[in-house]
Structure formats: structure tokens, C-alpha cells
Amino acid sequence: MVFLTIEQDFFNQYRLMYRPFINQVNVQLEQYQLYSSQWAVLRLLMDKGPHTFVDIANFMSIEKPSVTRLVQKLVELGYVETVAGRDKREKLVQLSAHGEELVYEIKAHLKPFFEQALVGVPKQDIEIATQVLAKICANINR
User: Is residue 95 classed as helix, strand or coil in its secondary structure?
Assistant: First the structure.
């Protein structure tokens, strides 16, 4: 018989939730020609304003060439634009006017999905889980 420690069980439950969650988010985003990683960039730009490619790479924990491809697709869709940064070598990525409207539309579209995923989970538990996941992320990224 295999006995999981509480830590192993926690991360196993996270793994069992994560992939199906991302798959379902991707299904929800199909009509906007987006994937969850692109949606994460749009949310970042909406919540925190323009960012450099390096900032986005760090935020997403991915390599800069991946960010370049990701941003290029968002530019093609008309959701973001690149502008000159403080010096000529630095490019900032920012939401276009269309991209801003789209973020509000997608948030409204995803709201029922998120609510359904959290049915039966008390608000206090959601807040605690959010804090726990943030702490784990900080520990891993130290």
C-alpha cells in the first residue's frame, strides 16, 4: 500500500486540477483565438500596464523567445501593440484599445466558468488557498 504524505497529496491534487483547468480555459478562449498563456499576458498588461518583453518573460517564467512569439500573435490579432521604451533598444508591450475592450469581454465570459469551478468552496477557503499558493510560489522562486 502506498501512503502519500500531506505534502505529496497537496501537490497531487494541484496537478489533477491544473491541467483540466487550463484545458477548459483554453476551450473558453477559443472564440477569441487565444490560449491561457496569451490571456495571462493580456491580464498582466491590463492590471499592471505596459511591460518589456523581459518583464513578461519573468512574470510568466518562460524564455524571451517564447514571449516574442506570444506577443507577435497578440499583435497580429490587434490585441496589443509595441511602443518605444525609455531608450531606443527597449520595447514595451501594451494593450491596444481593442485589446482593452476584449479583456473586459473575456473576464465577463470567464466569470461563470470560474464561479462553477468554485461552487461549494467558501470564500474564506478561496482566500486562504490563494495565499497558500502565493506563498508556495514565492518559496519555489527563491
Answer: strand
Helix axes 97-117, 6-29, angle to 10 degrees: 130
Which pairs count as long-range contacts for 85-89, CB under 8 Å and 24+ apart, including other chains?
Answer: 85/52
- Strands 91-95, 80-84: pairing kind: antiparallel
Model confidence, pTM: 0.88
- H or E segment at 94? strand 91-95
Q: Do residues 41 and 70 make contact, with C-beta atoms less than 8 angstroms apart?
A: yes
Place of cell 509595441: 82
In DSSP terms, 81 is beta-bridged to 94
- Which is nearest to 41 in space by CA: 13, 16, 8, 77? 77
Give the pLDDT band of residue 82 (cuts 50, 70, 90).
Answer: very high
Angle at 43 between CA 103 and CA 107, to 5 degrees: 40
Which one-letter amino acid corresponds to residue 103?
V
Which residues on adjacent β-strands are paired with residue 94?
A: 81
Cell matching residue 38: 496569451
CA distance 90 to 84: 6
* Residue count (the chain): 142
